Every structure is written in structure tokens, then in C-alpha cells.
């Protein structure tokens, strides 16, 4: 059994391609985790394991998610801060967990927990309690495709996230409010487009994560699962 501490991922500056894209490419103070009066924390779970069957998720022996299929993500659940036993079973089979770990949830935090992997199951835990101004949209990018090369992500033709490797997450960046956004995912350093998402709607005063999951040239295919994050959920 492993012990996992929740991490807030603000990676190295190299993950931001161009600071001149926005006058606030780095998260301003109001985008970072803010003090709140809540005493509980919140956690949600996603199954991003392309080669595993549907799973049941248990927290401290109580089922949290049942028959969670690849690409599916739960709502947030309220939890007491502290240590919790997280157990994963093949759906509808409670005989033996094929993964169990102790996670530590900080006070008044909002956590996303991603199950991912190819031959072995791993977990990725991110604090995603972020906030924006009413006329702004915040986005970040997580690479969870186990066999995909480093990736570039473009928004409206501008390279915002450059050479993101498997198991890496970016900083949030702030976008100006627009009716629609065009998203392109490319192999890093090339013009080879893997995914084209035109005319995507991102609501103002919200933060989102572009989760790249699935298999590169495999089944299930590479895809972007967009999640609405944290306190804007």
C-alpha cells in the first residue's frame, strides 16, 4: 500500500510557452487557492485508465463511485480533512482491491483524483481550488495518455502549453472572455494535429482542465476530457 500526499501542481516556467501571450500568464493572486470559511474538503474521482475495466471506488470502506468507466468523472464529494483509505475494485467484484492507498486531504481544499495507467494503475492527485474574475476564463492542461509523446496545446492558434510530457500538469492561465474557442492538440514541436476541437464554449468566471487521455494510435483513441474545476464547479 502506498501513501499519497495531495499536491498543488504549479510546474516549471518552461510549461508556459510565451509570457507575452497575456499580461497575466502567471496565475494572479486571486487565481490561487483562496482562504475560505469552509471546514470540510471536497474530492472527486475520474477513471482515465484506457486498458482497465470499469471500476468501483471506495473511500474508508464506503462506495463513492460505482461502475466508473473510462473517461467518466464523478461529482465532488464532501470529506473530512485528513487521511483516508482509497480502494479500487473491478466493478461489482469486492473480493480483492487491485489498488489501495492512503491519501491525505488538506483542510478546506478541493481535490481531483485521476486513476490512470497502461499496464499498472497509478493515481494523480491535484488541488484545483481556483477562481477567476467575472469576465475571465482559466484553463490548464494535464497529460495522462501513457503512450503519447510530448504535446503542444493551442488555443485560437496561439501555443499556450508547450512540450507537456506524460504525467505533467501546467499552471492555470487566464483567457479573455470570448463566445467560442478553438482548441488544437499537436505533437510537440510539429504541425501534426492530433485533436481539433473547434467552437468550444468556455463560460466566464470558470476554470477548466483539458485532460488528455486515451492511447496514441490505439484504442480507446486519444481524446480531451474537459472538466469544470474547483470552486467554480
From TrEMBL:
<dbReference type="InterPro" id="IPR025510">
    <property type="entry name" value="DUF4397"/>
</dbReference>
<feature type="domain" description="DUF4397">
    <location>
        <begin position="41"/>
        <end position="154"/>
    </location>
</feature>
<dbReference type="Pfam" id="PF14344">
    <property type="entry name" value="DUF4397"/>
</dbReference>
<protein>
    <submittedName>
        <fullName>Uncharacterized protein DUF4397</fullName>
    </submittedName>
</protein>
